[in-house]
Amino acid sequence: MKNKKIKILLAAPRGFCAGVVRAIEIVEKALKKYGKPVYVRHEIVHNKHVVEGLKKKGAIFVEELSDIQDSARPVIFSAHGVPKKVPEEATRRNMFQVDATCPLVTKVHREAERHNKNGYKIILIGHKGHPEVVGTMGQIPKENIFLIETIEDAKELNIDGPVAYVTQTTLSVDDTKDIIKVLEKNFPGIKGPTKEDICYATTNRQNAVKKVASKCDMFLVIGSDNSSNSKRLVEVAKKAGCFRAQLVDFKRELPLKEILECNTIGLTSGASAPEKLVQDFISEIKKYSSVSIEEYITSKENITFKLPSTLVN
Predict the structure, then answer these.
(1) Cα(130)–Cα(116) distance, integer angstroms
(2) Could you give the C-alpha distances from 186 to 2, 146, 156, 189, 195, in angstroms and in order?
(3) Considering only 47-61, 68-82, 192-206, 267-281, which range has the smallest mean pLDDT?
């Protein structure tokens, strides 16, 4: 099969965003400063490879604070953010807490709080059950926030009084624009964020996929099944013209048969997937075919976020 030639079009930017880098660093620095174990509520980021690596270093992942066996140990809140009741419970239990919420998610929390304080009902565009959505909805009284997922939801929504909207940070940029158009039509004067909520990394990765996807026989996104931003990249690739687009989880077998039927493959990774997985994928394909690589860079990223003061020596 080495006679087979495959061109890989590598989309960039891809992989870790600043919020993910910060969250992982928070866990690693907490382990270094306080020793092991440290507890992490929910997966720190949605990537199994990352989570398994941190487990080996001494992190224990739990879904609720009640699962923590030693309340004297530090507890870290994931990059997706948490409802207000979680830090309040941790404070009641005298737990040492470190917040790894992505600053761009925190921005959405503050927007929702501000709108609520100013008497607005809030519409949240997002995916039901996603930890980020659960966290955002948990910032204000539940009767004042309404979750919608689709254009149909937006059309059916009926709210009295002044209305504002916020969004999950990892949505499809194009899908969200269409939903917002419906909201603006149905709720004249609706208040939106001063700067859009979908994060720079989500936008940049989706733009890179749009640039590459139509040139490919197949498009693969390296990421985990529970990663919202990774799933959106698959959807974007399909809408951009590559219908054979799919998510590749690092623990699963690669779709080698399908890959080896292709001449040109597009490749990217979700914002919580390490670059190592991309390179491992390329190495695996090289075992079966002759590979050439072209990288398509649509933008450069140089954003970093500060660590919590408790972890800065």
Answers:
(1) 22
(2) 58, 15, 10, 9, 21
(3) 192-206
According to the model, what pLDDT value does residue 312 have?
Answer: 83
pLDDT tens digits for 46-55?
Answer: 999 999 999 9
Q: Comparing C-alpha atoms, which of 102, 131, 78 is closest to residue 201?
A: 102
**Can you read off the two tokens belonging to residue 254?**
């690669």
Catalytic residue among 52, 132, 294, 301: 132
Side by side, which strands form the sheet with 38-41?
A: 59-62, 38-41, 75-77, 97-99
What are the tens digits of pLDDT across the range 186-229? 999 999 998 888 899 999 999 999 999 999 999 999 999 999 99
- Measured CA to CA, the distance from residue 88 to residue 80 in angstroms comes to 17
Q: Please give the Cα distance from 271 to 226 (Å, whole number).
A: 12
Q: How far apart, in whole angstroms, are the C-alpha atoms of residue 213 and residue 265?
A: 9
In order of their start, the domains of the chain are 5-16+200-297 (3.40.1010.20), 18-99 (3.40.50.11270), 103-197 (3.40.1010.20)
Strand order in the sheet with 145-148: 145-148, 121-125, 163-167
Amino acid at position 79, single letter: A
CA distance linking residue 111 with residue 100, whole number of Å: 19
H or E element in which residue 153 lies: helix 151-156
| pLDDT tens, position by position, 107-135 | 999 999 999 999 999 999 999 999 999 99
89 in catalytic set: no
Nearest to 108 by CA among 122, 129, 88: 122
pLDDT of res. 197: 87
What is the rounded CA–CA span in Å between residue 156 and residue 31?
Answer: 48
